[in-house]
């Protein structure tokens, strides 16, 4: 049973009018995302679910495709963290189609909003994360030892008559991360801790093929990435468990160590229901490829990356801090293991 878990993958929607909700609903259905009614997110309903699910804190992320809306969204999430500091954390969205705007938002979110980390989408208005225009953004995030949550575009057009969240999100993540690998992003900015949504999509399954064939002479490789680098750089990534257990976890463990698996519910969007989130969580808890202690740790592994969130939980619930170094964790996170003990 999950107790005191941390959910890295919590979506939210700032308050909007009934008319705007209706318009979004029709746009989703046009994209074959056949949700039966307009979707409404509220903090109260989310907190109610978190209580039932045994989740102590949820990291909030939302990445609008317009800069003003993105800033407003970050402001709203920050207000929720201020109101519920032991229940929510903020992954501030970055506008990765404009490096100047992204750098300004990194500074603002860190200084004024006290963000725990950052959230980016694979394709932001046509600019992918491997694009060279983002080099200055990665330099700054690397300097800050930042945690960056990478999410695909779930609202992309349908493919072969089926909505993007069903299949395409897995391949967009895979294509984007492979492009980042060949672009040298992971080589040049090793202090950024990247967390991939949905267990990295299809990337873990394809990671063996990538290592086997990815450095062959017929593959364009301008940065001369080696087989060892492919293995090492992919192993440093963190993967959340959202909507992928049980079939996603075994390939994930081929690519990353067990303490790089973190819990994600994919909460707060119309493609997730309490039933599907709980079925996925049960599959994580029942997964026989890990020990019981390792399975339970999935719900708290991410705390090693978020010392500010851990401190807020400490003030509310009490957290024992183990002085041992957490393997695979470097930089600003304090490199410690945290475990929850409610008081």
UniProtKB/TrEMBL annotation:
Coiled coil: none annotated. Residues 6-270 form the Amidohydrolase-related domain. The keyword Cell inner membrane does not apply. It comes from the Eukaryota. One of its GO terms (cellular component) is cytosol. InterPro entries: ACMSD, Amidohydro-rel, Metal_Hydrolase. The keyword Transmembrane does not apply. It holds the Pfam family Amidohydro_2. It catalyses: 6-methylsalicylate + H(+) = 3-methylphenol + CO2. One of its GO terms (biological process) is secondary metabolic process. Keywords: Decarboxylase, Lyase, Metal-binding, Zinc. Its EC number is 4.1.1.52. One of its GO terms (molecular function) is 6-methylsalicylate decarboxylase activity. Belongs to the metallo-dependent hydrolases superfamily. ACMSD family. This is 6-methylsalicylate decarboxylase. It comes from Cladonia borealis.
């Amino acid at each position: 049973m999950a107790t005191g878990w941390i959910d890295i993958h919590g979506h939210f929607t700032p308050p909007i009018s009934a008319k705007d909700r209706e318009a979004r609903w029709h746009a989703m259905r046009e994209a074959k995302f056949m949700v039966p009614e307009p979707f409404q997110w509220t903090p109260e309903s989310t907190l109610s679910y978190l209580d039932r699910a045994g989740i102590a804190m949820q990291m909030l992320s939302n990445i609008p495709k317009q800069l003003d809306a993105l800033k407003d969204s970050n402001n709203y999430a920050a207000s929720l963290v201020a109101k519920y500091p032991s229940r929510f954390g903020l992954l501030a969205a970055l506008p990765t189609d404009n490096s100047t705007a992204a750098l300004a938002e990194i500074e603002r979110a860190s200084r004024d909003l006290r963000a725990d980390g950052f959230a980016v989408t694979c394709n932001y208005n046509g600019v992918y994360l491997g694009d060279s225009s983002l080099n200055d953004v990665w330099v700054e995030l690397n300097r800050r030892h930042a945690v960056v949550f990478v999410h695909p575009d779930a609202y992309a057009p349908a493919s072969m008559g089926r909505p993007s969240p069903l299949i395409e999100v897995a391949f967009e993540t895979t294509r984007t991360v492979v492009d980042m690998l060949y672009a040298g992003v992971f080589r040049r900015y090793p202090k950024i801790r990247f967390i991939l949504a949905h267990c990295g999509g299809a990337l873990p399954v394809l990671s063996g093929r990538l290592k086997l064939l990815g450095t062959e002479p017929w593959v364009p490789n301008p940065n001369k990435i080696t087989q060892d680098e492919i293995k090492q750089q992919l192993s440093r990534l963190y993967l959340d468990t959202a909507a992928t257990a049980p079939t996603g976890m075994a390939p994930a463990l081929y690519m990353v160590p067990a303490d790089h698996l973190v819990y994600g519910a994919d909460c707060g969007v119309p493609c997730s229901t309490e039933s599907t989130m709980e079925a996925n969580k049960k599959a994580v808890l029942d997964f026989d490829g890990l020990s019981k202690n390792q399975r339970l740790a999935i719900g708290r592994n991410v705390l090693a990356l978020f010392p500010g969130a851990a401190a807020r939980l400490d003030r509310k619930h009490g957290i024992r801090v183990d002085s041992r170094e957490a393997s695979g964790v470097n930089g600003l996170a304090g490199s410690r293991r945290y475990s929850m003990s409610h008081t």
